[in-house]
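User: Sequence recovery, please. Input:
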């Protein structure tokens, strides 16, 4: 079977030759690519797909295709600049930004009739990742400016760019179309999780109004792109974790959005994935009620709080696909790695029982500290213990 056929079989709950092996290696790749530390076997690689193909992995991608979903502003004045300094002479690629060579900060500005909003992203070499150093929204007094920006925001698809990445993957896997994120995650991006939480508690009606604006915009975008023949899977790039998505907030700011998106997507025989990080146990029944098809990816203890073999039962939605299992604890093993990874993978696959609706994938991401050999061991173990035929 091809990678595309294998992943589609997982979403459909059909048997395949093997459980799909679909690690997300983007952060791992770009950290080593930028630093010139790619292992000898893939030293000539220029893109994560090169490494995934070397491993014989099944590609389930969103980092490249996310740029095909673009933000346009119908009012206000938007601008951005890049500053900072790094020694890297290539573009610096992260999950959220692409920095020009030698730059490490992205400064964004949006001028509204109610004041000027600014945001700063900053790349941290120690983490091999970037973070919001300043949020758009830092004080409640900026509410009207934030609401103006949200009303002025629309989402459009660069269909040619998305199609380009579909062709790059070919039959080796699937690419997911980015639906941006849930209303709660949009509030996190605007104000930060801490301030967003305080604003929700102090000003529930106003925050609900912002959530409804975002939901309306994204569902309108979804209606425009859902019939695109290049798309089988859509993804909402949240960070679904009970620490930031307590059940009460999920019910108020996420359920309606995910349920309506799922209804539109399922009516075309397609699938909805939501990105997840960390502790998801308390949210799994709610995920099932929203009819989300898959979380990318479920994390077992100690970084997460739920064992993969019980996830589908807890979700309670028969079409749910478990994605995860390649967790950072096992990624970073340095002693007796081959035997430990094989033992872990064998035990996990045996515990899963029916291996349909299962994609053996990164539990969120692949750490840059993961030794190259460990990726090979995971590949070998997945093929050895994941045979379904």
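Assistant: Recovered sequence (389 residues):
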């Amino acid at each position: 079977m091809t990678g595309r056929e294998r992943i589609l079989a997982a979403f459909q709950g059909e048997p395949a030759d093997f459980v799909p092996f679909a690690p997300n290696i983007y952060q791992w790749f770009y950290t080593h690519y930028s630093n010139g530390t790619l292992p000898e076997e893939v030293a000539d690689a220029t893109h994560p797909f090169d490494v995934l193909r070397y491993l014989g992995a099944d590609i389930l991608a969103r980092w490249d295709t996310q740029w095909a979903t673009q933000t346009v502003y119908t009012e206000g004045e938007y601008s951005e600049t890049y500053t900072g300094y790094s020694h890297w002479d290539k573009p610096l690629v992260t999950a959220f930004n692409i920095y020009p060579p030698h730059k490490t900060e992205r400064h964004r500005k949006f001028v509204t009739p109610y004041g000027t909003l600014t945001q700063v992203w900053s790349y941290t070499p120690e983490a091999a990742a970037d973070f919001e150093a300043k949020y758009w929204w830092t004080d409640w007094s900026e509410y009207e400016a934030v609401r103006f920006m949200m009303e002025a925001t629309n989402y459009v698809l660069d269909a040619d760019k998305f199609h380009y990445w579909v062709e790059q993957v070919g039959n080796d896997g699937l690419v997911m179309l980015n639906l941006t994120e849930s209303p709660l995650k949009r509030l996190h991006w605007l104000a930060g999780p801490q301030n967003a939480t305080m604003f929700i508690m102090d000003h529930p009606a106003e925050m609900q109004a912002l959530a409804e604006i975002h939901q309306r915009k994204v569902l309108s975008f979804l209606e425009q792109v859902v019939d695109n023949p290049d798309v089988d899977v859509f993804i909402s790039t949240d960070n679904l974790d009970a620490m930031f998505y307590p059940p009460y907030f999920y019910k108020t700011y996420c359920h309606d959005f995910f349920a309506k998106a799922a209804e539109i997507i399922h009516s075309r025989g397609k699938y909805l994935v939501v990105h997840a990080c960390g502790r998801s146990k308390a949210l799994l029944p709610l995920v099932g009620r929203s009819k989300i098809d898959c979380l990318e990816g479920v994390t077992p203890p100690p970084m997460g709080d739920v064992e993969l073999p019980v996830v589908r039962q807890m979700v309670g939605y028969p079409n749910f696909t478990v994605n995860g299992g390649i967790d950072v604890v096992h990624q970073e093993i340095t002693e007796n790695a081959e035997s430990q990874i094989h033992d872990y993978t064998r035990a996990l696959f045996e515990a899963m029982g029916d291996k349909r609706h299962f994609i053996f994938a990164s539990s969120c991401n692949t750490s840059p500290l993961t030794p190259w050999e460990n990726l090979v061991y995971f590949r070998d173990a997945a093929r050895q213990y994941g045979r379904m035929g």
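DSSP finds 14 helices and 16 strands in the chain.
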